[in-house]
Amino acid sequence: VLGVNFLLPILLQRGLGHTSMIAALILVGFAFGCQPLVGYNYGARNKKRLKEILAFCYKFECGRAVILAVILSAGARPLIRVFMKTPEIVDSGVLMLRLQQAGMMFMAVVLVTTCVFQSAGKAMGAFLLSVSRQGVIYGIVIVIASHMIGYHGVLAAQAVSDFLTALMAAILLKHELWSELTDIKRNEEAV
């Protein structure tokens, strides 16, 4: 009985991960769609146009993330009931799915910023974001959260990791890209 009680949440989490992955892959597709525009305007040193493109990409991607998160969160119970009928498992699954969706907008920020770094030839920024969200930061967060609040900490770890990685993305973007573009504009004005 203990083995079954332990395995059911793990199996449920695995299945819900695939449900969330559908939403995540939609976001990945849109994030990668901005790469040619970002790369072209970055290469042309067209800061004004690049800012407009980035503003649109972040708003569009974050808007889509919120919409997908709301849809999946609102439909969590019926969605889970398609696969499981046991009330305790359904209740657990609703919480799991909703906590996964809590970080969706932050994941969108990380995806767009990663694509921006790739488009601008900033491999280190893209690498740091790629290994942080589901690797380094997630590993640290899940260990700390599980010790602090147990089971619920494990469930919330991905959303917290997404938030922290989005914060990291904003700092890297400001430091790596905006400072460089400001220097480019100053140099062009001086000539």
Tally the beta strands. Answer: 0
Largest sheet: none
Distance between the termini: 76 Å
Number of helices: 8
Overall geometry comes to elongated
> Percent of residues in helical segments?
over 70%
Ranges where pLDDT stays below 50 over 5 or more residues in a row are none
- What does the average pLDDT come to? 86
Strand content: under 5%
Oligomer: single chain
Radius of gyration: 19 Å
Give the SSE order as H and E letters: HHHHHHHH
Helical/strand content category: mainly alpha
Q: What would you say about this model in short?
A:
92% of the residues lie in helices and 0% in strands. With 191 residues, it is mainly α.
SSE diagram, text form:
Layout lengths: L1 H32 L1 H9 L3 H28 L1 H8 L3 H15 L2 H16 L3 H27 L1 H40 L1
Helix pairs in contact: 1-3, 1-5, 1-6, 2-3, 2-6, 3-5, 3-6, 4-5, 5-8, 6-7, 6-8, 7-8
What does it look like?
The protein has helices spanning 2-33, 35-43, 47-74, 76-83, 87-101, 104-119, 123-149, 151-190. The protein has 191 residues and is an all-alpha fold. The longest helix has 40 residues, at 151-190. The radius of gyration is 19 Å and the shape is elongated. The termini are far apart. The relative contact order is 0.12.
